[in-house]
Amino acid sequence: MTGKMKILTGFLAIFVVLGAVIVYQYSLSPKKESSETAFQQEGGLSFVSKTDSASFYVHDGQKWSRMFIKGVNLGAGKPGAFPGEVAITYEEYFRWFKYIAEMNANAIRVYTIQRPQFYNALLDFNEQREKDGKQPIYVIHGVWVNENDVLTIEDAFGEKDKILNDVVESGKEIVDIIHGDRYLPVNKGHADGTYTSDVSRYVIGWILGIEWEPSFVVGTNENNPARSEYNGKYLYTEQASPFEAFLAEVGDKIIGYESEKYKMQRALAFSNWVTTDPLKHPNEPYKNEDLVSVNVEHVKGHESFKPGMFASYHVYPYYPDTFSFQTDYINYKGLDGKPDPYLAYLEDIKKIHTMPIVVSEFGIPASRGKAHENRVTGFNQGFIDEKTQGDMLVHMINDIHAANLAGGLVFAWQDEWFKRTWNNNDLDLPDSRPYWSNPQTNEQHFGLLAFDPGNGETIRSVDGQVDDWAGDAPLYEDEETKLSVKSDEAYVYFRIDARNYDFDKDTLLLPIDSIEGQGSDRFSAYGISFGRQADFVLKIHGKNDSRLLVDPYYDNYLFRYAVQTSLIEDHPDASRKNSGLFNPIRLALNKRVVIPPGNAVIPFTGYETGQLTYGNANPKSPDYYSLSDFYYSEGQLEIRIPWQLLNVMDPSKKMIIDDMRTRGKISPIKTEGFNIGIKKLAGDSGAASKQPVAMEPYAWAEWDQPSYHERLKPSYYILQKGFAALPENEGLTEK
What we know:
Blueprint: H1 3-28, E1 40-42, E2 45-47, E3 49-51, E4 56-59, E5 64-66, E6 69-73, H2 90-102, E7 107-110, H3 116-131, E8 138-143, H4 147-153, H5 158-178, E9 182-184, E10 193-195, E11 203-208, H6 214-223, E12 235-237, H7 242-262, E13 264-265, E14 267-270, E15 299-301, E16 311-314, H8 322-325, H9 327-330, H10 341-351, E17 357-362, E18 370-372, E19 381-382, H11 386-402, E20 407-410, E21 449-453, E22 476-477, E23 481-487, E24 491-498, E25 507-513, E26 520-523, E27 528-534, E28 536-540, E29 547-550, H12 556-563, E30 583-584, E31 586-590, E32 593-595, E33 600-602, E34 605-608, E35 630-633, E36 636-642, E37 648-650, E38 655-657, H13 660-663, E39 668-670, E40 674-677, E41 679-681, E42 695-698, E43 708-712, H14 714-724
Parallel strand pairs: 2-13, 6-7, 6-20, 7-8, 8-11, 11-14, 16-17, 17-20
Antiparallel strand pairs: 1-2, 3-4, 4-5, 9-10, 12-15, 18-19, 21-43, 22-23, 23-24, 24-36, 25-28, 25-40, 25-41, 26-27, 28-29, 29-30, 31-34, 32-33, 35-36, 37-38, 38-39, 40-42
């Protein structure tokens, strides 16, 4: 035997031993079963949930109760980690379950396999609830689909049924997991571990799949005309499309696996959304949003499938544009007598189904940045404060109940720092999103639970009370003004202490230099000059005329939509440096759209996101307003500016947007920090001295892991009351 052969044989022996150890350890892991059973027995099968034509029922061990589902979607992310790192701990899950139960919710939804700590915490929490005579938290479990495969294969049956087989295999893994009978080896980007907690009695339903891309559905249908029928042991199709047959086959095989191995079943749904619903939307301006239908009415259950099916839809009040333009929807009056296209849609979708409907995602982001508007109701995708978020969520769950649907699940339980949004996702670095909080990205702020920067509390509260600035040396100080600057994972904070300062009449200008070799050394509109070339100017002039402004040359809105795409006109001076001009900072809301059938044109639309909102930003204050940017009290002015407004792509590594017009693209460059100055102009005259405004350097420390603390938003407490006002178990009505 050669030396190489000996080495290979040695390695093989090690792997065999390690494998044996893993299997042995797994076999020794005690299976944690629920202390009680709550299953209905019928035909040799057990089930804890079932449906009829309109309602969802749960068995509590003694009887069936009709349950209106009211709950939340629980993601896998937290600050400092991507979802694939599944970094949430047992203690965090247990604490969150407590909050969710205290919010009067009865269900949570997860999208895919979690790590063992989720199921362990769920079992321990629910057993304690039941010992205390309280209802457990039930789970609706998802089975995920690889989105990269969806985009690249573009056919559910493509590459020899790869997607179908992968989804079925994932479903089988989850079946074993919820029964506490699975080991998953380490697989980067996926959950792993030994699963021993049997939570099967608390899992009341499946939602299989994701929000289907219309092109994926069309590709499946066009490529597989001969596969439009499916007849399995548990599910079959009638008048189905090939894609609907794919759904039936996936569901049938997952049901079959659990039925045969564990003699158990649970209610089943397939994920869907307005974009691929079975309805026609004649005023939808984007063809792709009403291109193809997925109708779960074409999937039927054999007598062998006892629990039955329900329909699952993601329904948001601002997307797609059907909610702003469909005539019969926007003219519909809701419970409060005001236009309510949301309720109109729910009643419309209710008419076509012979099974109960759960709105498995509905939500409103309490973010500073905004990405889309409902032109009728103001239920917008962003620039909604946390109290209004709660009011809107209660409005929607009441609409869901009024439409006689089976329940709704709020998106989402927790904020998710790793998320992106279409109108600013090229302004940050994808690999570092979880390490800082971006208030400009609405997708990060759907949660009822906030993750605020800081260990235990936010470093600066922006409420006019400046005790938290004690001990900080001013960045700049002269006879009239003191300027202090701090920063954290979300904001740059400014404190200004100015003598003889009239907040309502005087103007403060703060030039900010962030990148070398560009910017303006003057602000022509005010006749002042700066000690350095400023890329931004922060202007404070009372409650209603305060904003952050940007040098046109460094204006990413102009660059993206005038230079890269020609959707708007470029600024005549934007291509030259040192123009002495400063622009409002804007975000896009929609590109030019044509509304059928009359072909009315809605032009390219943006809004000024650099305009500052006045108010108290301290969550502990009774006057708290989460959209607040600045506040003045007794001579003290505090301001907070999101990093992205300053063209920072990743504050944790001090990366900012490079010279866009020279590079021809948006790309990062490292900065050493900012140079910041301040100038007070008395009254409205704008009179200023000829002396250049001095600008002092401000630098911050990089970080590898963010600091943060949890905070229940006002929306949590508003929804808590809203959920309490809805029926818990519909009077424990027997089926």
